[in-house]
Design a protein that fits this description.
The chain has six helices and seven strands, in the order E-H-E-H-E-H-E-H-H-E-H-E-E. The chain has helices at residues 23-32, 49-60, 75-82, 94-103, 108-118, 142-161; strands at 12-17, 37-42, 67-70, 87-92, 126-131, 164-169, 172-177. The N and C termini lie far apart (47 Å).
């Protein structure tokens, strides 16, 4: 997959999009072409055979350049430990991490706030991948609605904390941040 090069220079990047939008492939491309040692921070837990197949495919998509660190919960500690000026971290993905935190009964707002505040302190660059889950219908149960809301708040916090934000749709990346705010005037 070919991507246009951009003069965007950041230390922290959030790559968002819907399911199967191409966000992980784009983030992987950025890490592989950075000139730094790519470290893949995997947040997934394998709950069933289908999830196992997804994880296997992600592993197969990475070559020998990559080092993989599996961390479903202690993400903030892991990125602090792994960050280095000679490395680029790829966290894939925040959505699965948040799922793990919620299912463990962890303090979701505090965990999200701590993760977001860590971005500015890291010793090297990091790319976070996250799903945008709020574009569909309203979920029919409380847990799913709580998750959708928590994911939206996490994405907002990470977008605020990261120097850059990319939106991926249909495999096409679009710069969201940094960008000038829209100039809007109202007519009367």
């Amino acid at each position: 997959m070919a991507y246009l090069n951009s003069p965007l220079s950041v230390r922290s990047l959030l790559v968002c999009g819907g399911a199967r939008s191409g966000k992980s492939a784009y983030a992987q491309h950025l890490a592989e072409t950075s000139g730094l040692k790519p470290i893949y921070i995997a947040t997934a837990r394998i709950w069933d055979d289908e999830m196992g197949q997804r994880v296997a495919q992600h592993r197969a998509d990475r070559d020998a350049r990559w080092t993989t660190v599996e961390e479903p919960l202690a993400l903030t500690r892991t990125i602090r430990t792994q960050a280095d000026p000679d490395r680029i971290l790829l966290v894939d993905c925040l959505t699965l991490w948040l799922t793990n935190v919620m299912l463990e009964g962890g303090p979701v707002p505090e965990a999200c706030e701590t993760l977001a505040s860590t971005c500015a302190e890291l010793a090297g660059p990091v790319i976070f991948v996250s799903n945008e889950v709020g574009h569909g219908i309203v979920p029919d149960n409380a847990l799913a609605r709580d998750f959708r809301d928590a994911q939206g708040r996490l994405n907002q916090a990470m977008a605020q904390a990261c120097e850059g934000v990319i939106w991926v749709a249909a495999g096409i990346p679009q710069v969201v941040k940094p960008a000038p705010p829209p100039a809007i005037r109202f007519r009367v």
